[in-house]
What does this fold into?
Amino acid sequence: MKNSSTKLSVSSQTSGEIPIRRGIFQGDSLSPLWFCLALNPLSHLLHESKYGFQLKHGILSKCTLSHLMYIDDIKLYAKDENQLRSLLDITIQFSRVIGMQLGLEKCRIKTIVRGKHTDNEGYSQNNIRIEGMDSDDVYKYLGILQATTPAVAIIKSKLGGI
It folds into this structure.
């Protein structure tokens, strides 16, 4: 993105040239495609790690799910804490290499063992901290509240504003 710039217009006033030094243009119809292309190598690295959660259907077919990506959101799946740490390390290293900053304040770690949601202490390494989630915590993914149990109080507070 060398030599790229933009101007801001508010009402009848326009700013001078503002240089764009990094990132992907927002508002352009190709921007989502560029972003997906930039993250495709990360998806490949995570897949090639062979880590992940095994999905089984009967006894014949199985699939290992290491991650789900949707535009700038990613969920990592692992069968144990060591695999999750490895997937996190791959993601963090890749992000550093391409100069991408992770929104760590939005990241959480959820632990499910044999279908039971358990508390998690989180992840800490090299000045990076990702908070763990308690079994009754609620989080938002793709704009939708996610919970392991019905979040009645949250739903009531949201409906109270209607």
About this structure: The helical segments are 31-48, 81-98, 152-160. The chain has three helices and 15 strands. The CA atoms of residues 12 and 162 lie 37 Å apart. The chain has a mean pLDDT of 82.
